[in-house]
Specification:
single chain; mainly alpha; 4 helices
Length: about 90
């Protein structure tokens, strides 16, 4: 995921959270504090998710017998759907 997509999503969630909090509390100060807390919790969650993905990738067994030109080496088996022919432009 690119940073721009992440940042746009983060801002969208925080704005929605801030509007909802303000409607519920009618207090700018409470809205500000709770939105900052929400932003910190979202960042911690994002960091832990990335850390988990890196950890999981490092635990995958390395397959040394893969030939460089095979479908397994290029990752084609993940992009092809059963019964759908390959595009001639690929």
């Amino acid at each position: 995921m690119s940073f721009v997509l992440f940042f746009r999503g983060l801002i969208g969630v925080l704005v929605a959270f801030a509007i909802t909090t303000y409607i519920a509390t009618h207090s700018l100060w409470t809205t500000f504090i709770q939105t900052v807390i929400c932003a910190v919790l979202l960042q911690i969650g994002y960091f832990l998710a990335v850390l988990f993905l890196v950890w999981r990738e490092g635990r995958k067994p390395k397959d040394a017998a893969v030939e460089p030109g095979s479908a397994k080496a290029t990752g084609d088996e993940n992009r092809r759907l059963p019964g759908v022919p390959r595009s001639p432009h690929h």
